[in-house]
């Protein structure tokens, strides 16, 4: 510790560089960022109980929530792949391509709103979307309820999870159980979190230099807080519009939600937690290399051309945002019954 500090001081005088284990940089970082907590946040009105968490986990892995009985939340938010699907844009019902890249479900609970355009206020509201989206799971709430009702284990588990409800097995309660389960998908203890908690050695010199650039070049203006993002809406292309393959013209982002001209091509700043594990990047999923996405951010959002070495240092810092991945056991799902609705594979509904 002492040796490293002395070395830093020597380096600072020699090269007038502020990089390397500096307590000041740590203090500055603490004003912008917060570590991922090790225990899930609790929701007022939706207390997590062991029964509800089991139900939520089963529903997350339950392909029979989809019309085809093939697609579950896990299909596009794979818990073995950092909560994402490694596709440019997701593939759903009948092999249809959705318009946007699937963001990770890990730590999503700390985003101020859900989806690239923030159109769902929380995880419970969000969970009802994909089940009904025709390019995703292509189902209806009525059909989902009919499916779950046909499986006695679910009827029992909904009763246990929502003991005060007269009718526990509802579409809304499905979403509430999924919400509580998703809130457990946290990735604490990344090197950067250990650094934020005071371990100056948790980052290498290069990673610290990347952190300093991330702050001083202005990335932190849109990527801060617990999730290093997920907290505000910004145009993609504040200074310079990215090429139209990266920013397709037909997806106007938040404009579709608010209908306000100033919201054209505005997107929620994504969380950068575990970003090294979740390529491809941007809502279009057109950029596969993290380094390339960093350079695009420099020109599009800040109007600067990052040098190869600056971009490499920032990328090294971003890799320190990879936390401990949750280990989720795949649940055993209730066996099919005679009256369980059969899979529908076609896209026309027949
Ligand atoms: C066919 C693939 C697919 C399936 C199935 C799917 N999702 Fe998604 N999910 C996506 C895509 C794509 C987005 C981004 C859509 C957008 O922003 O318009 C998304 C967004 C989300 C988000 C928002 C994350 C953020 O940072 O904004 C959450 C949470 C989420 N999905 C959870 C779920 C849950 C829970 C299920 C199961 C009920 C589910 N998803 C099923 C593809 C899928
Ligand atoms: C003015 C706000 C703003 C600034 C400044 C900014 N970003 Fe972003 N960032 C965004 C938005 C908005 C997106 C989502 C763009 C999209 O796909 O629509 C994004 C996306 C990203 C992504 C891709 C994330 C993913 O999940 O696909 C990375 C990586 C990233 N930013 C890193 C950086 C870095 C590094 C800097 C500094 C060089 C930076 N950002 C500066 C707003 C900003």
Keywords:
single chain, 350 residues, mainly alpha, Cytochrome Bc1 Complex, Chain D, domain 2, two-stranded antiparallel sheet, 13 helices, globular, binds heme C
Task: Describe the structure in brief.
The protein has helices spanning 2-15, 23-32, 50-60, 73-76, 123-132, 141-149, 152-161, 171-182, 191-196, 205-216, 255-258, 290-302, 308-319, and strands spanning 233-235, 266-268. By secondary structure, it is an all-alpha fold.
Describe the model:
The structure is a single chain. The chain has 350 residues and is an all-alpha fold. It has two domains: 163 residues, Orthogonal Bundle (Cytochrome Bc1 Complex, Chain D, domain 2); 133 residues, Cytochrome c-like domain (Cytochrome Bc1 Complex, Chain D, domain 2). A two-stranded antiparallel sheet has the order 1-2. It is globular. The site of one heme C has 25 residues, from helix 4 and helix 5.
Write the layout of secondary structure elements.
Elements: H1 2-15, H2 23-32, H3 50-60, H4 73-76, H5 123-132, H6 141-149, H7 152-161, H8 171-182, H9 191-196, H10 205-216, E1 233-235, H11 255-258, E2 266-268, H12 290-302, H13 308-319
Antiparallel strand pairs: 1-2
Helix pairs in contact: 3-7, 3-8, 5-8, 10-13, 12-13
Bound molecules: heme C (2 copies).
One heme C binds at residues 71, 73, 75-77, 90, 92, 98, 100, 102-103, 105, 108, 111, 114-116, 123, 126-127, 130-131, 136-137, 178.
